[in-house]
Amino acid sequence: MKNIFSGFFIYAFFCAILFSLVSVTSCGFGRSWTSFRGDDGSGRSASAIELPVGLRWKILLQKHTGEDRFFNQPIVDGNAIYFGSSDGNFYSMDINTGFMNWSVRTGGPVNSVPCVDKKHVYFGSSDGMVYCVNRESGATVWTYQTGGQVNSTIVRYGDRIVAASDSDGVYFFSPTGEKLLSLSNKYWFHNSFQIYDGKMVFAPGTPERPTNLAIFDIPTQRYLWAIDPGLVNYPWFSFPVVQGGKLFYSATGINEDGRLGFKFFCLDFKTGGALWQTEDQSYFSPDFDMNVGDFFMECAQLLDYGAPLVWRDRVIYSCGDNMLRAFSTRNGSELWKREYPSPISTAVTLAGGRLYFGLRSENDKGFLVCASAFSGKQLWSISVEGSILNSPVIAGSRIFFGTDAGFFYVFEDVL
Question: Is residue 403 part of a domain?
Fold first, then answer.
């Protein structure tokens, strides 16, 4: 949370890239990924990726001339992939071939992460609209015009569709497009909320304290507790994860010395009481020459920037610099810190005891990286065109992501 389909090319490659590393043991095949960062926002896949890995297909989307570089997570359901792009289109692609099922043209870049039900796909656009379209044909079923850009996660909870509009409001719709409820949102942008156990985490603050971040109970329509984030130095608050009665999230800002600073929090989910907090400073390689402020603003366009991944006794973070960090979920003590040769461009995804994430591009080449969840040590990497801009989605035997060069990739294990 932060304060026409031209030039379409399909490249189909099967078994193109092979690796002679040790195989990763499979733990099942989760063939769908239907919500932002997976079930309960955990960032964990039920699948595992076997080696060798090859490129299934990639597409080059319509060229976009603006400054927007976001490319947030797709969702995968059945034989289709659904995602939006900064070119202003929302796409449905065939999972096996990469051929387009349909596209919907909106009035601005599509930064939201969609949700699906049996018949429909719901997404938002920076044109301020919430869209409901038929998932088979792409035909528009209904739209709703909000008062700000819709750059949020879109969540279905029971018979409600929930979306946030920048510096405007949080809207609760019926599946037929009727507005059921709205909450004021005067300050927050790019809302990466989730709904856990009937509670919106995080909702914008109460009307009395709108700069807070709150837990809003949807069935009773009341605020349970809130935190005062203190916006001066740490204006970005990550997507939150709830596990084992604990709420994990991070905050990022620019310190007085011009470096990025990171804070990592663990709260009691029921009461909001602090269980632990720890901090760290950013580290970049000496040849990093981008203005830190501009770099921070680029990262903050991505809804999963700084999102935690909880696995066993550790919570793992990537925060846009060259370091991957793991802390104890019990007391916040540092378990390990692993340096990479270029900034890490995504949050991490877990599959089969392995971490998957992107490295920022150098000379127009970025990398998909697989690393050990025990130590953060790199196991293998694949070169791609541009920086990967969403934490990789792993469904079945396939890995899905987009890059700032306008490509969408699907890799798969080829055994």
Answer: yes
